[in-house]
Here is the input.
Amino acid sequence: MDLRFTPDEAAFRDEVRAFIRDNLPADIRERMRLGYGPRKEDTVRWQRILNKRGWAAISWPEEHGGPGWTAIQKMIFLEENQVAPAPELSSFNITMLGPVLIQFGTDEQKKRFLPRAANLDDWWCQGFSEPGAGSDLASLKTAAKRDGDHYVVNGQKIWTSTAHHADWCFLLVRTNPNAAKRQEGISFLLVDMKTPGITVRPIISIDGSHHLNEVFFDDVRVPVENRVYEENKGWDVAKFLLGNERTGIARLGKSKERVRSAKEMARSVREGGKPLIEDAAFRQRIAQLEVDMKALEITQYRVVSAYDKQRDGRPDPLSSVLKVKGTELLQSTTELAMDVGGPMSMPIWAEELAALSNEPDVGPEWATQATGSYLFLRAASIYGGTNEIQKNILTKAVLRL
Amino acid sequence: MDFTLTEEQRLLKDSVDRLMTERYAFDQRKNYLKEPGGWSAALWSQYAELGLLGLPFAEQYGGFGGGAVEIMLVMEAFGRGLILEPFVASVVLGGTAVRLGGSEQQKSRILPTVADGSTKLAFAHGERQARYDVTDVMTTARKDGSGWVLDGAKSVVTHGDCADALVVSARTSGERDDPNGITLFLVDAGASSVARRGYAVRDEQRAAEVSLSGVRVDGDAVLGEIGNGLPLIERVMEAGIAATAAECVGCMGALYDMTLEYSRTREQFGRTIGSNQVVQHRLADMLMSLEQGRSMAMLAAMMVDEPDAAERAHNIAMAKVGVGQAGRFVSQNAVQLHGGIGMTEELAVGHYFRRCMVIERLFGDTAHYLAKLAVAVE
Ligand SMILES: Cc1cc2nc3c(=O)[nH]c(=O)nc-3n(C[C@H](O)[C@H](O)[C@H](O)COP(=O)(O)OP(=O)(O)OC[C@H]3O[C@@H](n4cnc5c(N)ncnc54)[C@H](O)[C@@H]3O)c2cc1C
Here is the structure.
């Protein structure tokens, strides 16, 4: 047992760190440092810079344009990227679609979609959830009926993140409503968002942002060649997609970055007549978060190094630990950052208004932004399988009750 | 010991509850938000007609002669309605400053107009650099003949944008952080030397940045004692804490009801989500937090007029912590148990969530009051 990085791993980390330092555009870094989510163009710009270096398709094998990293290297990269802070890679393109096509896609599909996904030439979105099918995804109803060499899709998806930016959508549809088991009648389709019959409607979330959408399908014709894997075997693809990524699920780098930022900002505000950073209770709160982050870091190392050793493709139940503990940390570290700002975190920061006015900002941008992240990340324990569902998975897999 | 309401209190509660049910449904509230001030002028008049705007004032000042319990009842109903009007700013904060600090002449001049809704007050104490430190006042008031000249800036003044008059704290002596030397002034919000910039806070209520550049006021603008404004400021904040604690209980009650209802109707895996024991226990935890929070809001209400200042401050600090934590727990879990839909603007849940979040940070946050309590541990 050895907790230290090997010399190779340490050298790798330094290389990544230096690359990000030298190549992340300053304007993007500054916005991210203030706590803004990346804009679409920020994500595209940064992913293309990484892709040029061969570092975008991090979880793909080398023959498909991946860097050929070990799981530990991937983890190191993700953390350095989050801590920078830089925009994260498009998870739809890189951790979801790519591995699915590599595992299940035809050569034609791989050739057509993978390079464009790596370079973010196509922005993908994930059309899984429906109003009636959230935690119970297999109850989805959106129907695809075969009509010659097309499927005709009718139905509705919801919570589709960034569908309004998307060029393509990977979609779960029901192709056999009469299957003995619900899971057996589902197929996995790739849909061009420009196809007639698709309507995207915004959903504004409690942080005031437009990230989520409803997507309606009205007689949308999808070529049969855009089905991934066999008809009615889409559930296998979906399970693979949801279970295959264990590194990065905890987004530990993001939590670390929030704590670092909170510490820095806590020098500039006061509590009880002295800088907040000197306040004993505040320091204890940081200390507690650092303990929790350390535990998660080691758990993550364990999961990731086991992954490098066994590669049996089965999701490790410990990945549910990473998800639950990781999202709890994301939520408490963004809450911390918000609390540092105190009353200054409460106004809504209206960027447009500020631009029109010569008057000083209402509060420091970092404070108002911190609240935006806190509010949005209340969803972290909901998306990607709610934390209650994660615990159900653990119960089943580990406790065997 | 007695927790029952008098007949009059029950009638008051019923009438405000009814008003909220009839006039403050979530969809109606959306329309009020679109009104010019971001709240409903019609409801403001209605509050005045019902006597709510004069609730804590003596009858001789056009008031209702109510006390902290009446305020608690009304604020809980307002919390359920998630109202947008400047009741706390004008009646509770401004009203307390004038009621407890004003001269006979000031009270007779101002309170009747607050009670009839024609004057709206706001409490302009917090400053940008101060965070939650009450004594961190850098705005100054300089003697000028028989009057005073004020300079400085006030930050996140709740409903400061629509106020007709501001209760402003300023230093008449001493340095930043000095508990002595702070004085409260009544300032005409429309004066040309007062610049205000209004904006929305996360809970959709309005606030303003206020800058004072050479604001000239007469000698009779002083509210309370010159140089000894701190005890009065503390009374005002305590009244604010007690009122918003009750409001938070109203928010929690609404959140709990909505979540319970949702868990009974939302189905996944062929059964209601509420049939999962983990969801049931979460609801039980929410209910416990709500009831503990309610107890703390009652404590705050019953302590707000306690004559012993140390006793009063100590208990109100406890109530502040208890209600803040309860509000956080209940609102976070209400969102969680609603799943994706709980994250949207369309549903009321997120709006209550944000009001709880803001209330926890009004007049100081949980950590701030825990630190005060920690110092007092014997
Ligand atoms: C910000 C955000 C982004 C998202 N992005 C996408 C996306 O891009 N594409 C996509 O397809 N989906 C996306 N989702 C949807 C997400 O995957 C679902 O919200 C999630 O699966 C939960 O489903 P639901 O919202 O219907 O909640 P429900 O499943 O209705 O759950 C409601 C509550 O009940 C609990 N619950 C349900 N079943 C059980 C049980 N058996 N035991 C115990 N508790 C239970 C849940 O934990 C939750 O607290 C996103 C969601 C959010 C909030």
Remarks:
- Chain B touches chain A through 50 residues (CB under 8 Å).
- Residues 231-377 of chain B form a domain with the Butyryl-CoA Dehydrogenase, subunit A; domain 3 fold (CATH 1.20.140.10).
- Chain B has a mean pLDDT of 97.
